[in-house]
Amino acid sequence: MKFxxxxxxxxxxxxxxxxxxxxxxxxxxxxxxxxxxxSIRTGQLVDLDAKKPTRAIxxxxxxxxxxxxxxxxxxxxxxxxxxxxxxxxxxxxxxxALAYIMNNYCTDGLKTRLIALPDYESTIRDDPLALLTAIxxxxxxxxRTQYPPVTISTHWDRLLKLKQAEExxxxxxxxxx
Length: 177
What we know:
Blueprint: H1 15-29, H2 33-42, H3 62-105, H4 108-116, H5 120-124, H6 128-140, H7 148-160, H8 170-175
Helix pairs in contact: 1-2
């Protein structure tokens, strides 16, 4: 199952199916993969600063503060170190996800089209979210727009010959649309 540009002779899996398979794999196999998987599903990098822990200050008398504050500081430092570790995992998983998508889910023709995009070097090369957006554009944009009547007849032909595969369930078949 790969992303590819569908033509009259080739038929690739729908974008949504491959997209969800990538997110599921990353969530399952990467350290703190749930953050990068959520980013892939939403198309925007998860904002971990919103979940950044805050340091609490003990209230009460000086004696009570002296007893309570060290415990609160330890709790804050453990939460903060976990938060920093989560941020590090998120940023280290981005290049891994990009390589995983390019190597396992892009056909050679699609790779060529992606590399030919004008903003490939500046934005797409290091960002898996931008890569998925570019893939979606390339997959749904027809390469043969030079001669529209051929494109229209090809799509009508594919639509009229569309069948549900023998081992394909109804929800997967419906996702094609």
